[in-house]
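Entry 14. Two folds queued back to back today. First construct below, sequence then structure tokens.
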Amino acid sequence: MCNHAAKLCGLLLALASSLPLRAEEATQPKPATLSDVLAASAPSDWRAVDAENTLYLELPAGRVIIELAPQFAPQHVANVKALVRERYFDGLAILRAQDNYVVQWGDPNAETADKARKVVSAKKSLPAEFDRALDEKLPFTRLPDGDVYAPEVGVSGGFPVARDPKSGRMWLVHTYGMVGAGRDVPADSGGGTELYVVIGHAPRHLDRNVTLLGRVVQGMELLSTFQRGSAPMGFYDKPEQRVAIKSIRVAADVPAAERTNLEVLRTDTATFARLLESRRNRREEWFHYSAGKIEIGNVSIPVRPAAPADTKAK
């Protein structure tokens, strides 16, 4: 009797699996992948990178493009642009490449008074800009899955941001590609004469301890592949190990024909919300399990070459 029942159940299951899907199941849209979201995006979902707040770091291997964040570190951004415009960085060097941490550049002779590069119109140091007052007018797309280091994390203007509504503060956070101003022990000992970029796992313990002022939007592969320094903290202990900086320029100062015009996906749109969901729940065929969560270090902002002006007008 039991064997007959088991056989009957098996036949019924096989029959059910061979039946056509119900109408509502057949018409249910397939969950979107990242490629689907980007393919369906509209021109209005993208914004041009502002040339006045973009730096071109020219290395022997190519160009690294850094988008600055004046809404979070206005004094440091202004000072770094002043340093760039007085050609402070030209001919200086990559000083440090610490595995799973940062690449740093600046003046190899900064500690030697008679050899140090002179700062002309900019400032050598500034008050720290570790955080700022929380501004509800700044667009903020909050991640739904929480964070270990802050009450809220999300993206604002294309930058990873943390917020604390109780204290009324918000700040940029250390994730892959973020650029900060190196300093000594005093909080106000940095001003942008030494800059670093995160090349490893998000070192979130640095949040609100260093002034972050921008992020790399193109060319990270040129920084993350530097030979690691053998001295403590990844510094190069031999001059020949350093890579010379050809120049750093504000993009607005570069002739239009020599610029790299990029567009960044806006992070205050429904398209970006769909993108986040596609990354929380991976729907590509390769995935057999979707995490259903995402943390700020895994949120990447798509960047693409800007369409020619005549194409946009059509």
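Second construct, same run, same settings:
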Amino acid sequence: MRHCGLAILVILLGPCAAAVAQDWPTKPIRAVIPFGAGSATDIVPRIVFEPLSTQLGQPIVVENRPGAGSMLGTAAVAKADPDGYTLLATSTAHTITPAVYSNLPYDAAADFAAVIPFGSVANVLVISPSKGLKTIQDMVAAAKAKPGTFNYASVGVGSATHLSVERLRLSAGFEAVHVPFRGGPEALTEVMAGRVEVYFCPINTALPFIREGKLLALVVNGTKRSAELPDVPTTLEAGYRDAEFPIWLGMLVPARTPQDIIGKLHAETVQALQTPATRERLAKAGVEPLIMSPSEFDARVRKEIEANGALAKVAAIKPN
């Protein structure tokens, strides 16, 4: 009788769950971005949310909640009701945080359900032309020739710009000193002045300086060459295996959000991403398309959490 009752309950709940997704959304949606305004993780979601809110018939209210290495805003979403009305717009930083911070107030895998990536962004390794190093092979040779003195910039311990160089360094087999800065502009200034050797910089940020001859592009860390820098090889093309570190930007929701709502949110976001205006704006922001199903994206998030944890241990990056 007990099994029979459960079967009846499942049958009765099935149409109800579908009805919830069909009616959703009936009120404004909150999208939390755990970074400050003006960052790529802020700009890209806003581009996507504009057509998405029109399609859904409800405003998507963006709330920037930076702080504690993105943990503040992320924790708020983890604790939110799993009803489809709270979204997390984040990046690869979500999979790095568990590797560099101890005692997180949430589980980066178990407390979230992945919905869809907005796209992928590669960084380019830049150096001052005054250094006289023309290729990535030249740079690696120079670093090996003066172990302990070659250095590189990042925007902070545990940032994607930090782990990008560490992955390349371990693959190529050279030593380097990490010089963290508070932001990208300061890092770029120091590299252009020659006081710091190299920096894995977002392509669109570095592009004007590369074109002006103030910076030289050595390699990109994506899985394919950048359309903006077609003559610059990927790390794999340059001969360094397992050195790529492409950055995704995407959307997660609290765990236990109904699958029907996740499915609808995914389908509507795919449609928003494919509008000509959105595609053009994302391309100008240096974002490459990266369409995945929720299950594929979820698997990628979990795999990256594990891989970044292993990288942090090998590179001796201590948790904060």
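Quick look at the second one. Strands lie at 29-33, 60-64, 86-91, 112-121, 123-127, 151-154, 177-180, 198-202, 216-220, 247-254. Confidence is low (pLDDT under 50) at residues 1-10.
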